[in-house]
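Dear H.,

Thanks for agreeing to be a second pair of eyes. The structure we're designing against is below in token form, covering all 383 positions.
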């Protein structure tokens, strides 16, 4: 059962990271808006941050640790090597690294369900086994997490998995022309994710503060699916998974990641059981922070909103800091906001802008404290 938000805002006293996150997601005003690096930075950008911050006497690893309010947990793969390592994943999807000039992105190379046009072929596909994961190890992970940190469980991405198995264009065409193929494939995918979710939360549900799903549903200008098509084909599966999360981790909030413009789908996502929208790609149509807060702020929390598409790579540091303060003021009013980059920080982003983001979110005193705690042993004054 979905938990109603608490709208009677009250300023909490200085808190642990976990208390801060739980206050924000209960729509109470925390001591400050929580912060998460979420997808952090691309490997190449992380290397750049490490080098440039070290030259300023700051440890990038330490800075991430002292400013991060939320940690990830998920069961480790322990199944057959041919279905979970190297270029292939558990779904039989082949992956390759594609160079873009300043680094690489991992992209799909082999779509195992491309061209499959019968329900029987889908039923005969060698779907993965939930037993291929180490749930006892997940229980140990949960027991070892700092009690002061908030924890989120990665509950995965059913529609996106299908797109990786079939190809986005084919999935969208099938939604219109052969919806039974989409539904049957999602039945198999969701059965796997549901069992993985249930087994994980049976051993670690009490430690979870967030159960995190992700399915990209938006483009730059609107949803990939019409609200009616989402409602008919995908929403029942999201509702099924979100309900399991609520049942097995009643103290946690259900969060879902989607890039793009998803304003038109938010009523349905809320009805399905989503409580926190992650990414909040403010550069897209209808995703302005004030519009989101005014329309959905009493029912929905937000995680992200710091643009990695325009703000961080293209603005000056003063604009980044000012914009982050504005996001905190708008989305964080009365609780309901966790500040974070909307996705991985991209190569070419000025390091000064990353620091300005932290200053805007943490405030002057919090920022100074974070830099002091992250100073390298031989460092002098920080910038």
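And this is the sequence the design step returned. I haven't edited it by hand at all.
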């Amino acid at each position: 059962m979905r938990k109603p938000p608490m709208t009677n805002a009250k300023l909490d006293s200085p808190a642990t990271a976990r208390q801060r996150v739980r206050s924000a997601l209960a729509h109470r005003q925390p001591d400050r808006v929580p912060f998460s690096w979420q997808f952090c930075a691309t490997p190449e950008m992380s290397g750049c941050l490490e080098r440039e911050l070290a030259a300023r006497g700051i440890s990038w690893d330490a800075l991430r640790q002292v400013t991060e309010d939320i940690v990830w947990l998920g069961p480790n793969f322990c199944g057959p090597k041919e279905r979970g390592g190297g270029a292939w994943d558990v779904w039989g999807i082949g992956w390759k690294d594609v160079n873009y000039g300043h680094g690489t992105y991992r992209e799909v190379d082999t779509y195992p369900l491309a061209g499959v046009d019968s329900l029987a072929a889908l039923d005969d596909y060698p779907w993965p086994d939930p037993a291929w994961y180490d749930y006892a190890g997940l229980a140990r992970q949960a027991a070892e997490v700092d009690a002061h940190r908030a924890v989120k469980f990665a509950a995965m991405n059913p529609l996106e998995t299908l797109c990786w198995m079939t190809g986005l264009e084919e999935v969208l065409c099938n939604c219109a022309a052969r919806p039974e193929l989409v539904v049957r494939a999602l039945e198999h995918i969701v059965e796997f994710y549901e069992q993985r979710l249930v087994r994980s939360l049976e051993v670690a549900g009490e430690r979870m503060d967030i159960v995190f799903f992700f399915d990209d549903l938006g483009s730059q200008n609107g949803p990939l699916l019409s609200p009616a098509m989402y409602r008919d084909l995908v929403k029942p599966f999201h509702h099924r998974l979100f309900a399991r999360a609520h049942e097995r981790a009643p103290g946690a909030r259900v969060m879902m990641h989607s890039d793009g413009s998803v304003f038109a789908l938010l009523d349905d996502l809320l009805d399905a059981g989503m409580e926190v929208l992650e990414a909040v790609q403010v550069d897209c149509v209808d995703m302005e922070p004030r519009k989101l807060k005014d329309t959905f702020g009493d029912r929905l929390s937000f995680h992200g909103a710091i643009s990695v598409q325009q703000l961080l790579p293209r603005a000056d540091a003063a604009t980044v800091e000012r914009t982050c303060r504005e996001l905190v003021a708008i989305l964080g009013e009365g609780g309901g906001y966790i500040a974070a980059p909307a996705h991985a920080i991209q190569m070419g982003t000025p390091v000064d802008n990353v620091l300005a983001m932290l200053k805007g979110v943490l405030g002057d005193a919090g920022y100074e404290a974070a830099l002091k705690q992250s100073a390298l042993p031989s460092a002098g004054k920080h910038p």
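Two observations from my side: The CA atoms of residues 138 and 144 lie 10 Å apart. Residues 30-68+280-378 form one domain.

Warmly,
E.
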